[in-house]
Amino acid sequence: MMPTYGRLPVTFERGEGVWLWDTEGNKYLDGLGGIAVCVLGHSHPRVTEAISSQAAQLIHTSNLYGIQAQQELADRLTRLSGMTNVFFGNSGAEANEAALKIARLYGHNRGIEAAEVIVTDGSFHGRTLGTLSATGSAKVHAGFAPLISGFVRVPFGDLPAIQALAGERPNVVAVLIEPIQGEGGIVIPPDDYLPGIRRLCDDNDWLMMTDEVQTGIGRTGKWFAWQHSDTRPDVMTLAKGLANGVPIGACLAHGVAAETLAPGNHGSTFGGSPFACTVADTVLRVLDDDGHLNNAEQMGERIIARLRDQLRDDDRVVTIRGKGLMIGIEMSVGCGELVSMALERGLLINVTAERVVRLLPPLNISEDEVDELVERLCGAIRAFHNR
User: Fold this and answer.
1) 146 in a domain, yes or no?
2) So which residues are the catalytic ones?
């Protein structure tokens, strides 16, 4: 194996719901959900049945032919989002690459040969050279220069900084934004941020593009995070939770953006296979049928309230914030060690931006499991501070 991951000393062999068991028989509560992927937890019976039955019927044919499952998934996603059409790939990075190609071709069609896209500090859009260049992280950039040009960076949450570019950068064609920054530390912008970007894009003929790879598919208590402010983008990208662990990515478009790509402009060998699309469509139906979006909102509020209660006297906890089941606990010091300490207590978490504990549990987590998660996490935080 190439040494691209700093793996923890544990290997899981089976899962059920929000629980995982390692090869030694130890049981863990999954507070990370495969990094926002396993929205229905592990071994969900309807997902398992969809995987099994579709694998026995048809896995792949290629996009040279019609794919019924792909069309059905596209129909469902466009109904849920109010978007017009979809391109399917295999990951969030691929979905964002599709969005960036739409932006550049949109600019080219307007006579702008050196199109620029506004992006933000602290953002994360992927690890391909294109999405890495769009990402606002010096750590992610390190060693991969020269980066791809055509990106203009502004502080996250700063509308005036974007507005100032309207007169300064005539080649700007789009704004690419995460509604909530995930890898950046669960950073939630002001309520007027997305509506403000929508107005600026409308006023300047820019495309508004939202990266919902982590925030989408019910993670924040809505199907898509932009729905909290009723601010529909021109382009939206999805992946992670869309198929509960089966690789898939989607780039949805609306308006002129939906009319930009033509045959030969983009493609994918594996994207939108009958297998991946059948599983993804099943995930969306289960989320809808069983009320898991409401559960995400309610359980997220419960986690935050209980964490604030138990950690209220801890002056090293800067803030506890989140929306739905996308939650961050910001510490005053680097706390990467907490990941191992939580693991010792049978809890999977993540630390991002060096000082933010990140929680992304499955959307079907129960009240009792929420309380267990909070108890284990608070125990780890107290032990970390004592150490």
Assistant:
1) yes
2) 124, 211, 240
